[in-house]
Write a structure and sequence with these properties.
16 strands; Purple Acid Phosphatase, chain A, domain 2; alpha/beta
Length: about 210
């Protein structure tokens, strides 16, 4: 179940698949997919489940089918490390949507050569992209024009219950001029944020997005 938030006059849908949809422009925003990370770790002896890599690609395909987005913006860290089977799988998913335009905002893990992105039908923006009223970047900016949508942080919050029970959940985080998306990819971890007065936080609990105070 999605939630809605209005930013600078634009209605955005916060999706439980850890993405934002802007229905007015049929645009989809996704951050920190880290495709290739699972294969990279397995190659170096860390036994993450191989099926998790296929699950990430399936989630992307499902999201594109459900939203029918005309334009997709990956807010950095699309792919993790060197080329491997996950990159091939990603290109196969993208090829299923020939009428969709895909953009990549360069992130610190996006180290492939630009030709690789071009061949995957990605328009590459290494230094961010103006998309009024938004400014898209990978890392949260300190100075910018417009409302900054970004990733990189892998935001999360810790919810505490009775006794010593606690639960850490990925979240969407919005301050006065900046919105940070949760990491799309599995096994990316979360960074617990310090929430300030006036911030809006929406946690992702299975198939629901829930605002918390």
């Amino acid at each position: 179940m999605k939630e809605r938030i209005e930013i600078e006059g634009a209605e955005l849908w916060l999706l439980p698949d850890r993405a934002i949809y802007w229905p007015e422009t049929r645009s989809l925003f996704i951050a920190d997919t880290h495709f290739g990370k699972i294969s990279h770790f397995r190659k170096h002896g860390i036994k993450l489940p191989e099926e998790a890599a296929r699950t990430n690609l399936y989630r992307l395909e499902k999201l594109l089918l459900e939203t029918r987005a005309q334009t997709v913006y990956f807010l950095g860290d699309l792919f993790h490390s060197e080329l491997n089977r996950e990159w091939l799988g990603f290109k196969q998913v993208i090829a299923l949507f020939p009428s969709t335009t895909f953009h990549l905002i360069g992130g610190n893990h996006d180290i492939l050569d630009e030709l690789s992105y071009y061949r995957a039908r990605l328009e590459y923006h290494p230094n961010g992209l103006k998309l009024p009223p938004f400014y898209l970047s990978h890392e949260p900016l300190e100075e910018w024009e417009g409302y900054n949508l970004c990733g990189h942080i892998h935001p999360g919050v810790v919810l505490r219950g009775q006794g010593r029970q606690s639960l850490r959940l990925a979240c969407f985080y919005f301050s006065g001029r900046q919105g940070i998306l949760p990491a799309f990819g599995e096994f990316t971890g979360t960074h617990a944020l310090k929430i300030k007065k006036g911030d809006q936080v929406f946690v992702i609990a299975e198939d629901r997005v829930i605002e918390v105070s």
